[in-house]
């Protein structure tokens, strides 16, 4: 998947500035696609050149003018083609997994990394839960899923929540195993 498709999907909610898109990526899309603001702005320029989006300048008082980006018919078609394509599962590429694989070489450092990852995942869960409640806006999940104009953002948020909850469980399990092994190895004989 390319950043281009993630941007096209984010623009389904309507026109947005680069700043708005960066915030949206940080709040919701980041659970499955990461990018820096610089990457985002470069991609927006390419997409405009390719005719997938249009930009219009909005003049503002007391602030610099901003550009609002919108999907073009070509952009909608490109997104429809992407959604119709075969989507292969991704492979996990995670440096922490390599460190855990070699945990016996520096157990304390690996435990510190696991604690840090667990805290990071817990913070993301809290942020995603706040976003989920804002999306539901007082409705039950079932009411939202049946009546919402778009459910894709909610469904991807659920995947992000599941992923981070699994990270917390896995980190806790690894820490328990490493602590028990350390206690066994440190016990007097």
- Uncertain ranges: none
| Ends distance | 55 Å
- What class, by secondary structure content? mainly alpha
Helix-strand string: HEHHEEHHHHH
Number of domains: 2
Q: Globular, elongated, flat, extended or rod-shaped: what is the shape?
A: elongated
- Specify the helix fraction band: 55-70%
What's the tally of helices? Answer: 8
- Describe the main β-sheet briefly: 3 strands, antiparallel
Average pLDDT confidence is 90
Strand order of the largest sheet: 1-3-2
**DSSP E strands, number:** 3
The radius of gyration is: 21 Å
| Strand residues, percent | 5-15%
Q: What are the salient characteristics of this protein?
A:
single chain; mainly alpha; Arc Repressor Mutant, subunit A; 2 domains; 3-stranded antiparallel beta sheet
Please give a structural write-up:
This protein is mostly helical. The chain has 2 domains: 3-84, Arc Repressor Mutant, subunit A (Orthogonal Bundle); 95-186, no CATH class. The chain is 65% helix and 7% strand. The protein is built from 8 helices and 3 strands; from the N terminus they run αβααββααααα. It has helices spanning 3-10, 18-27, 37-49, 73-84, 95-101, 107-136, 141-147, 152-186, and strands spanning 16-17, 53-58, 66-71. The N and C termini lie far apart (55 Å). The relative contact order is 0.11.
